[in-house]
Design a protein that fits this description.
The complex is a heterodimer. Chain A is mainly beta. In chain A, strands 2, 4, 5, 6, 9, 10 and 11 form a seven-stranded mixed sheet that branches. In chain A, strands 1-3-8-7 form a four-stranded antiparallel sheet, with no helix packed on it. Chain A is globular, with a radius of gyration of 13 Å. By secondary structure, chain B is mostly beta strands. In chain B, the strands form two sheets. In chain B, strands 2, 4, 5, 6, 9, 10 and 11 form a seven-stranded mixed sheet that branches. A four-stranded antiparallel sheet of chain B has the order 1-3-8-7, with no helix packed on it. Classes of the chains: A mainly beta, B mainly beta. At the A-B interface, strand 5 and strand 10 of A face loops of B.
Chain lengths: 105, 122
């Protein structure tokens, strides 16, 4: 099984900050990775597929990069709507990371 | 715009079988371009893949749940369903149905239902 590890588990930041979340895979997964945003009490929402493909309707301040075993999700300038929990997901085995909670500092 | 809606009992007794249905609107479960998924999330915890089904009836399950899970599809009703047998308190979670694109190396979820809480308790 592929294990996905996100860091940090919690991230405190302010509106306007640039933040980066890291996701590491226990095995090489090429670029087969997705990122989701989940607000409290809501279903997750797909942000990025294939490591860096921004989904339609997702603001351009979100970007993804990486390949192999290390991936990042970057938010270039935090907005109030962005405070949520973020999950990475490897296509293989459909393995999710444990989540990164982005909190207001 | 596709919409997915979970339905089923919110309370199940231990050792019994959990049964949920997902009703799809704005798309068809006969659509050859998509898989149909079940995902769950215990309170305050992360997401867990349960399994998926294709319009043909072909399925894939999480190995850790495979012995207890069945996913089926009813294209005439535009629904797909989940049964999970021999439940315990560890199966208490919000259960989501979702849609994802079909094809190799395309295993992600582009639309989700709102989720339904299932509690396992006597």
């Amino acid at each position: 099984d592929i294990q996905m590890t996100q860091s940090p588990s919690t991230l405190s930041a302010s509106v306007g900050d640039r933040v980066t979340i890291t996701c590491r895979a226990s095995q090489h997964i090429n670029r087969w990775l997705a990122w989701y945003q989940q607000r409290p009490g809501k279903a997750p929402n797909l942000l990025i597929s294939k490591a860096s493909n921004l989904e339609s309707g997702v603001p351009s301040r979100f970007s993804g990069s990486g390949s192999g075993t290390e991936f990042t999700l970057t938010i270039s300038s935090l907005q109030s709507d962005d405070f949520a929990t973020y999950y990475c997901q490897a296509y293989s085995g459909f393995s999710f990371g444990q989540g990164t909670k982005l909190e207001i500092k | 715009q596709v919409q997915l809606q979970e339905s089923g009992p919110g309370l199940v007794k231990p050792s019994q079988t959990l049964s949920l249905t997902c009703t799809v609107s704005g798309d068809s479960t006969s659509n050859s371009l998509f898989y149909w998924y079940w995902i769950r999330q215990p309170a305050g915890r992360g997401l867990e893949y349960i399994g998926r089904i294709y319009t043909s009836g072909s399925t894939n399950y999480n190995p850790s749940l495979e012995s207890r899970v069945t996913i089926s599809i009813d294209t005439s009703k535009n629904q797909f369903s989940l049964t999970l047998s021999s439940v315990t308190a560890a199966d208490t979670a919000v259960y989501y149905c979702a849609r994802g694109p079909y094809g190799a190396y395309r295993y992600y979820l582009d639309n989700w239902g709102q989720g339904t809480l299932v509690t396992v308790s006597s």
